[in-house]
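Inverse folding, one chain.
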């Protein structure tokens, strides 16, 4: 999982891994990591202490609703949730650096709680903030990113936007993994990127945007680093017949369209709403 470089920094320095700050990398060093374009930029993304994320809304969210931040379950400040564990409505005062279109920090946002977090079936966290979409937009001129209610299609052009590194990775949806297994965790129907998206530690939780609609279709979470088989940092794909496929150097995300039915009036989580398939506590 591409959570952070803090735990692996010394090893990365010793082996000259890709753990190099974005400001020190030119496009010749990382051709898949490009600066913001007119099509997709950093507005609405956030930096966490160890991950990336974004301020998001669902189609039914209202301006006066408390804003939500999307990231990974494995980015929770409480640590990785265990298999089968679901975190709901836990107090949190975590802070997030809000970025503008150029990738500059314009504000510090604060959570009131972890609305939801899990690493079972998917790898997602949702924080409820102490402020509203309306206040964020009126004060900083930044709109929340919208979660698409539609499943992305194979071949969709996408951008993985990392607030932690202030990088944008452009590629396409290569396909989907029926099951993606990494260590103790299993995720369902994961997005597999084409090889151009060479995401690194710290990009965990980055929103994955459809470059046509500019809506969030997934949340970046992992990749096979060393060619290992179903181990930590080396997820493997398992098909309906149990056949295992290892794709070294390929990275993955978890789809987010399934979150949309779970967010009700006032941006409140309702795991029993019609169409909501998120794991329950």
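Residues assigned per position:
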């Amino acid at each position: 999982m591409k959570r952070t470089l803090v735990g692996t920094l010394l090893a990365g320095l010793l082996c000259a891994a890709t753990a190099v700050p974005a400001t020190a990398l030119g496009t010749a060093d990382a051709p898949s990591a490009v600066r913001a374009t007119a099509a997709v930029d950093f507005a609405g993304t956030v930096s966490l202490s160890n991950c990336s994320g974004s301020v998001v809304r669902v189609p039914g969210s209202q301006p006066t609703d408390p804003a939500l931040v999307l990231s990974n379950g494995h980015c929770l400040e409480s640590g990785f949730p265990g298999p089968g564990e679901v975190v709901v409505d836990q107090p949190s005062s975590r802070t997030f650096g809000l970025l503008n279109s150029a990738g500059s920090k314009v504000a510090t946002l604060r959570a009131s709680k972890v609305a939801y977090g899990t690493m079972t079936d998917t790898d997602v966290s949702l924080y409820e903030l102490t402020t509203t979409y309306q206040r964020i937009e009126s004060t900083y001129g930044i709109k929340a990113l919208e979660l698409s209610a539609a499943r992305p299609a194979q071949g969709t052009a996408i951008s993985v936007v990392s607030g932690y590194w202030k990088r944008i990775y452009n590629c396409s949806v290569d396909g989907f993994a029926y099951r993606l297994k990494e260590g103790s965790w299993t995720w369902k129907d994961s997005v597999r990127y084409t090889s151009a998206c060479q995401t690194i530690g710290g990009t965990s939780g980055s929103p994955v945007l459809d470059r046509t609609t500019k809506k969030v279709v997934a949340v970046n979470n992992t990749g096979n680093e060393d060619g290992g088989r179903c181990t930590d940092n080396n997820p493997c794909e398992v098909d309906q017949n149990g056949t295992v496929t290892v794709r070294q150097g390929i990275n993955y995300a978890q789809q987010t369209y399934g979150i949309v039915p779970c967010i009700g009036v006032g941006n409140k989580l309702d795991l029993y709403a019609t169409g909501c398939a998120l794991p329950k506590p």
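The radius of gyration is 17 Å. The chain has a mean pLDDT of 89.
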